[in-house]
């Protein structure tokens, strides 16, 4: 959820209803989908929501690169946000692989 705070704070007010809103929705959907999947009755459902969360994370990474090109995010800020996104991506990948292995052996 640190990624949510980092991204939203860095964009200009003029983008409040444009790219900022898109990024906000995508960033918020990452932990939301993880939580929703966790609340589902089966491992298969949980995995599906983890895949959706990863898709949202890739969407955020793309939007951050667009924001950089538009001058809304600068070098060090972008590097920090992408580093957070990479860490989260690795965590999601690890959890997904772990659940897939358990499903394959069950």
Summary?
The protein is mainly alpha-helical. It has helices spanning 2-10, 19-38, 43-70, 75-105.
Helix and strand topology:
Elements: H1 2-10, H2 19-38, H3 43-70, H4 75-105
Helix content: over 70%
- Strand % is under 5%
Distance between the termini: 32 Å
Query: Which overall shape is indicated by the principal axes computed on the Cα atoms?
Result: elongated
Q: Let me know the largest β-sheet.
A: none
Which runs of at least 5 residues are low in confidence (pLDDT < 50)?
A: none
The SSE string, one letter per element, is HHHH
| Strands, total number | 0
Count of helical regions = 4
pLDDT average, as an integer?
Answer: 86
Structural class: mainly alpha
- What is the alpha-carbon Rg in Å? 15 Å
Explain what this protein looks like in three dimensions.
The chain has 106 residues and is mainly α. 83% of the residues lie in helices and 0% in strands. The protein has four helices and no strands. The longest helix has 31 residues, at 75-105. The radius of gyration is 15 Å and the shape is elongated. It starts with a helix and ends with a helix. The model has no long low-confidence stretch (mean pLDDT 86).
């Amino acid at each position: 959820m640190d990624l949510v705070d980092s991204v939203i704070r860095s964009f200009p007010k003029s983008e409040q209803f444009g790219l900022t809103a898109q990024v906000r929705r995508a960033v918020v959907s990452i932990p939301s989908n993880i939580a929703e999947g966790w609340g589902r009755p089966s491992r298969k459902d949980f995995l599906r929501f983890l895949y959706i969360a990863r898709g949202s994370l890739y969407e955020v990474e793309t939007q951050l690169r667009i924001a950089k090109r538009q001058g809304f995010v600068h070098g060090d800020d972008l590097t920090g946000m992408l580093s957070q996104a990479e860490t989260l991506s690795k965590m999601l990948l690890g959890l997904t692989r772990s659940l897939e292995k358990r499903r394959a052996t069950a």
